[in-house]
Specification:
The complex is a heterodimer of chains A (207) and B (219). Chain A has 207 residues and is of the alpha/beta class. Helix content of chain A is 43%, strand content 12%. Chain A is built from eleven helices and four strands. Chain A has helices at 15-29, 35-48, 51-63, 65-73, 75-80, 115-118, 123-126, 128-133, 138-144, 181-185, 190-194; strands spanning 91-96, 101-106, 154-159, 164-169. In chain A, α3 crosses α4 (65-73). With 219 residues, chain B is α+β, with helices and mostly antiparallel strands. Chain B has helices spanning 28-42, 48-56, 60-65, 68-82, 88-93, 112-118, 172-175, 193-197; strands at residues 137-140, 159-169, 184-192, 205-212, 216-218. In chain B, strands 4-3-2-1-5 form a five-stranded antiparallel β-sheet. Chain B is globular. The chains are: A alpha/beta (207), B alpha+beta (219). At the A-B interface, α1, α2, α7, α8 and α9 of A face α1, α2, α4, α6 and α8 of B. β3 of chain A pairs parallel with β4 (205-212) of chain B.
Chain lengths: 207, 219
Amino acid sequence: MPHDGHTDEMSSLSDVELRVRALESILTEKGYLDPQALEIMIETYETKVGPRNGARVVAKAWVDPAFRDALMSDATAAISSLGFTGRQGEHMVALENTDAVHNMVVCTLCSCYPWPVLGLPPVWYKSAPYRSRAVIDPRGVLSDFGVTLPDETEIKVWDSTAEIRYLVIPKRPDGTENMDEAALADLVTRDSMIGTGLALEPTGAGS
Amino acid sequence: MNGGQDLGGMMGFGPVEPEADEPVFHGDWEKRVLAFTVAMGATGFWNLDQSRYARESLPPADYLSFSYYEIWLAGLIRLLETHEIVSQAELQAGRSLASPKPAKRILTADTVSATLLNGGPVDRPTDRKPAFAVGDAIVAKNMHPFAHTRLPRYVRGRAGIVHAVHGAHVFPDSNAKGLGEDPHWLYSVAFSATDLWGPEADPTLTVHVDLWEPYLDRA
């Protein structure tokens, strides 16, 4: 429906929007919610905490062997050393993709996801098609993302059934030997850190 | 519980449909639901496992047709009613009709950022010794509790190998009942796809699942 200015605002709200408004006003009236705290939280996950954090972790692991080793032995501490900590990332494990092994992460029981490094999960990650199929047909899921792996690649799927949160370290693309950490981070997509994608190829040789 | 949330291995949902340049939220109401759900979690009326149990207790037909933030909203309303924080009459009236029950904590503008950055670790000290070590062969128990559990149906009764010992963590099955944290050893267990799904399964696939000791028997 087009937005035509001065229609009654309430009539354009869906049932769920009305219920959300009513509930929020009840909880605020009872003193359980600080409206300013809610705004800070929303802003945090909209603008501050997202997959660029994870991309920094991955790029550093690619260029700094000592950091890579620290990440593989204690991911929580290594990631925390870059300032990424907190809710839904209290117990981190890093999984390294190689030519031989491809890791992919799912939460079949809900929507567990490493918030401090990837932000809030995308809709597809929380959806039934992904949660049902990732553990039985990961190659089929990968093809939904346009990714085909060699038949002999070993696939490890990690079902986040506890409070351990997984970050996939995608394979560093060929031809990136001369790129610096910041440029490498731009190749690291959110999906490559879930394992449903690969890191991007660099555009143009030597750029 | 064998609810609509336990999706591993189900079929018929169609392809995964990633959205290009997906926004963090699809509409303002999703922002509100995320924010007030997290804020109400901080009040201490319930714990994380109780909130998961509330969501998975939705009738499966609802669970599978709701968007994820609708599941959160329905789960939160269930918690608010069960814990007598908000009544059905208040939800219908759209306003508070009774004085509030005292909360342990209110997430304020001063504390919210630190709270998010600190999170809530669930590893706990324990006097118990781990029963299993890396490389041990185990079988996941065949159990079907009516209450909350984090043992997915698709591994029950299946043989696996302990891949890692994570430490002692809060045990959801106990915590979701409000019976205390009862920490138990948590293991990463590797299951081959052929053990989970039969001889036709992808021979290159291994599924790792994080499982607490009470879910496991020695093979």
